[in-house]
Amino acid sequence: xxxxxPPKIFKKIYPDIFWRKETYKKEIFIxxxxxxxxxxxxWIINTLNNLSIKATFFCxxxxxxxxxxxxxxxxxxxxxxxxxxxxxxxGWRNNKETYLADIQKCSETxxxxxxxxxxxxxxxxxxxxxxKKKYKIIMWDLLSYDFQxxxxxxxxxxxxxxxxKNGSIIVFHDNKKSKKLLQxxxxxxxxxxxxxxxxxxxxxxxxKEV
Length: 210
Fold this sequence. Notes:
By secondary structure, the chain is of the alpha/beta class. It has helices spanning about 10-15, 40-50, 60-65, 70-75, 95-105, 125-130, 155-165, 180-195, and strands spanning about 15-20, 25-35, 55-60, 80-85, 115, 135-140, 140-145, 170-175, 200. Helix 2 packs parallel to helix 8.
């Protein structure tokens, strides 16, 4: 899968959604979607800790309920947690009431957060005004594609390292599909990003800033 940047028109139409931080500083944001998982989440945390990197985990409520010990582990190690809905619900296929209820249900299983990312990146424009009253909507400008069946370690590294830029929000996945590939490549990717002098940031609590 070839990396594709989000269309610029999206940023103009939806200025309240964060795709990337506009900055001259070598700052980037590492994010993980879909967890927590039993074994992969602790492995990711250990990998990040060994490199003194903090990241943001957009958690699914169902998984948080299954693995509360890993939610606690994320907090203990200084990582951020965001809302990724309770059941990984599709924002294009569900009405506003159903979608908002799923977000609320997730909020009852994770620590309080102002960060939200829609599963699949699918968000109905009619839902945005209600969501942004409680959350900062975080998308991305660099999707790793670590979940793709035909993705290799070499392709994954090239995809991330060749397309990262100042202010990039990078998406990896804390799930079964990505486990094998992530465990073979994440450490090397993070080392290379460090070698490129990038600083790893967490998201601001200010609703108008990344």
